[in-house]
What does this fold into?
Amino acid sequence: MKNLLKYVTLLVVGLCVGVGSALTMSGVVGGRSLASFANVNVDGWHSDWSIGTATASPYVRARIARHGLLALAKEEAVYFTRSVDDDGELFTESCRYQISGTGQDAFWWSITLYDSQSRLPMNDDGALSIDATKTGDVDHWSAIISSERPTRNSHWISSHAAGQFDLTMRLYRPSQAILSSPQSSINPPQLQRLDCLQGGAS
Amino acid sequence: MRKIFIPVIVFSLAVVTGHFGTLKAAPSVIMSKAMQTMAERGIPLHQFVLGSRITPQTQSVVRPSPDLVYSICLFDFSGLDVPLAISAGVWDDYGSISFFDAKTNNFATIRVGAGSSEVVLTPHGMASPADPTNGVTHIKTPTKRGLILIRRLAPTLTAYNRVRDLSVEDQCRPLPDVS
It folds into this structure.
């Protein structure tokens, strides 16, 4: 009886350890960002080329099911995530940033802000993203990321109610060059921290 | 030695079983829960439903794009013995029809452009119907359950309203049984 109880306890504890380690290592739970799992890194923008495919590892599949359900395979769209500014500091609502970039070799691109739960931040600002239709056909574009509408006339992505956040860049119908050599074919937008409220990142 | 060896083996087997069992089950469980939530919100089987314009208040899946409009059709061949016919109304900007199985795999995507985009979807084991017309794409789903998503680029209210008007042409319906 004593032995039986011992083995049942070992089984239960072992299963719990196994479940917990799987959820943590795959990023289904825990504080690890999507970027920390990536296998493609272009100037701080991270992606995983196996998203959406049956060949993805079980860790990738579990993580994408949780944080990127219904993501497309890379031939149709690629997704890059960035969670730090150019100085390596985590994005936070209490700071203002300037994001700037050029066009992309894809049919359409967008950059959207998400909170730490992979949700759009709960605000009514109507400024959730910037995309190729907003920047137009220009060589260079920029936008302000901040919790309050910028005073000067500029593109704006609102971080109001986002807390700690990240950015997802989507490239729909990427060129073959992007798929085969992303490091040399993607134009990674730059993220400059402008200033922070007291208590925010320095 | 045996007193330690057997408990260690039992514990290790439990850890490995729990670990890989969870990894294997997670996508199916998450997809099943998402489909159940969609059904509870009124999305029926075998019919495209146009989603609301994506806002923080209307988002129902993680990381939706506020610049895209989504139409969803849930499918389940468990109680269906005929193929599904799928098509999307013509859209002059970015558009696609993507197919996801019950394990979250994006097993097919076709583009919605200026021309016709017609698909016949069947599960493995069901014969595809003879195709007397050109331009119909035959796709096999790896699992009996899943969902189909039409994405259309519509970053403004005006564009969303245009999608709403043409989405009445979107079709996801069982083909008549001609056997």
Observations:
- Chain B has a mean pLDDT of 88.
